[in-house]
Amino acid sequence: MSKQNNQILKNTNAKILDEFNASVMFDKELYAQDIKGSIAHSQMLFEQGILSKEDKEAIHKGLLQVKQEIESGEFEFKIEHEDIHMAVESRLTEIVGEAGKRLHTARSRNDQVATDFRLYVQDKNISIKQQIKELINTFVDVASKHTTTLIPGMTHLQHAQPINFGYHLLAYANMFKRDYERFESSYERNNFSPLGSAALAGTPHDINRDSTCSQLGFYSPTTHAMDTVSDRDFALEILFNISTAVMHISRISEELVTWSSYEFQFVRMSDEYATTSSIMPQKKNPDVPELLRGKTGRVYGNLISLFTVMKGLPLAYNKDTQEDKEGVFDSVKTIEVSLAILNEVIKTMIVNKDKMYNACKIGHLSATDLADYLVQKQNMPFRTAYYITKDVVATANELNKDISELTIEEIRKSNEQIANIDEEILNYLDLEASMNARNSFGGTSTKQTNLQIEVLKNWLESK
């Protein structure tokens, strides 16, 4: 190989290595947190007599200029800067000169990135839980309009017992309430400042970690520098919390897809959230819920990816953790748009009460009420009542009726043990009565559903 070709190869390899090593093209997402942390750090250095007032003021003014340049699009991110920290510091030094070179005193990029990333995650813990709160409010609002709207309650995707549609929606409100609480809990558990941990073992400079901690809104400094710079539990937590939340989004999306099919026709989605087929103009596809359902794959992948990165890392900081951010950024953006869209889908969907009610007449949903009646009123053992009820269901099937539509004579003829059963059983088999009979705490009766709505409203007001 000629010297010229060898040099070209070396230059090519160097360029590839630079691109491979650099993170600035994605960790620039952390520019605001990086600048915020640098302002707090320089203020602390001034307070400790490590930085002069003039240098501190120049640094603050320069950092705010860098922030303005980034936000206006003037700032040029370059691969040679390697990461957001060096990109900001290099531009700061161009603006303020020697003072900019003093900024990195008593800190390392190890604690700097840990601080930036934790600030980002903490900000997202707050904003995502607020979005979840808005979604819960929407579920509660729609549920309050349907506390008497009957729909088949299912197990194994088979018709089981009559419930009201509001009650069904409140199941999702409770799922998302737990999601809210997970983000809230993660914020509390992780709101501690890494800044001042330096590379892994602290710094010989006379710093005040409580000062930077207070400026940045953390509760207190972390207590172990080596653990701090290598810790990414906070990132794993937000990925897990997002994964659980998108799983819940996927579950309601699956129901929306099912409910909007011709076979069900329980709901109709706004035209904004469904599209026509490219070849069949009569068909409207539930594309948006399908996409929401499909987003779980990428989010789960981001969680497993970071688990895999972290599983074998020795203490303390390792370059592997550069792989921690892109997945988090992606998952955050995914759940933010998913929550916003799902909120609008639920708000705007049209509920077909008649279709829901007619579906309740398929599958003998009030059969359990007959068994319960025989236990309570006839003092029968439940297993005996169970087999008598099977006979009544068989009669209903022979007559091509739902059990709720049988006459008292038809019920009495089903089994000799109930040949003289009281007519009041007809009231128990009524679908709405069956729904309201489930009045135990947490049950589907309209009364209990309204109580659950009140509890959720009080919780929402407290947040």
Tag the structure with descriptive keywords.
3 domains; Fumarase C, Chain A, domain 2; Fumarase C, Chain B, domain 1; 5% strand; two-stranded parallel sheet; Ribonucleotide Reductase Protein R1, domain 1; two-stranded antiparallel sheet; 21 helices; 463 residues; mainly alpha
Provide an overview of this structure:
The chain is mainly alpha-helical and 463 residues long. Helix 3 (31-47) crosses helix 9, helix 7 packs antiparallel against helix 8 and helix 7 (109-143) runs antiparallel to helix 21 (446-462). The chain has three domains: 16-106, Fumarase C, Chain B, domain 1 (Orthogonal Bundle), CATH 1.10.275.10; 108-194 and 208-357, Fumarase/aspartase (Central domain) (Fumarase C, Chain A, domain 2), CATH 1.20.200.10; 360-460, Fumarase/aspartase (C-terminal domain) (Ribonucleotide Reductase Protein R1, domain 1, Orthogonal Bundle), CATH 1.10.40.30. 64% of the residues lie in helices and 5% in strands.
Kindly, what is the distance between the CA atoms of the first and last residues, rounded to a whole number of angstroms?
70 Å
- Approximate helicity band: 55-70%
DSSP summary: helix tally: 21
Structural class: mainly alpha
Please report the first level of CATH classification, the CATH class of the largest domain.
Answer: Mainly Alpha
Q: Shape from CA axes?
A: elongated
Question: What about the largest sheet?
Answer: 2 strands, antiparallel
- Strands of the widest sheet, in order across it, are 1-2
Rounded mean pLDDT is 94
Proportion of strand residues? 5-15%
CATH H-level name of the largest domain... which superfamily? Fumarase/aspartase (Central domain)
Number of domains as seen in the coordinates: 3
pLDDT < 50 stretches? none
InterPro entries: Arg_succ_lyase_C (IPR029419), Argininosuccinate_lyase (IPR009049), Fumarase/histidase_N (IPR024083), Fumarate_lyase_fam (IPR000362), Fumarate_lyase_N (IPR022761), L-Aspartase-like (IPR008948)
Domain Fumarate lyase N-terminal: 11-301
Enzyme class: lyase
GO molecular function: argininosuccinate lyase activity
